[in-house]
Write a structure and sequence with these properties.
mainly beta; 3-stranded antiparallel β-sheet; rod-shaped
């Protein structure tokens, strides 16, 4: 009868260079602006003494910037909120 026992393989890694002492050389690689649809809401307004309802589309405008470090071959990104966009002007 064979009994299967789990085995653990340990790996040891060595670095030939110490990358922690080198500073990063971040350079802007790409920049992208996106508009993300985030939903709707209803608002009321008055026109000719009558109350009306209208649906407003809400979107968020965000910008993503990707940076690249050629020294370590690393990337990092930043995403920034720019503004909220309503399809209709209302208060």
């Amino acid at each position: 009868m064979l009994l299967g026992l789990p085995t653990i393989a340990l790996a040891h890694t060595e670095t030939t260079e110490d990358d922690s002492n080198k500073s990063h050389n971040w350079q802007e690689y790409s920049r992208d602006t996106n508009i993300i649809d985030t939903g709707t809401h209803e608002f009321t307004y008055w026109k000719n003494f009558m109350k009306h309802k209208r649906t407003c589309q809400i979107s968020q405008k965000v910008e993503t910037i990707v940076y690249y470090c050629d020294v370590h071959d690393h990337t990092k990104s930043e995403t920034k909120y720019l503004e909220t966009i309503h399809s209709h002007k209302h208060s």
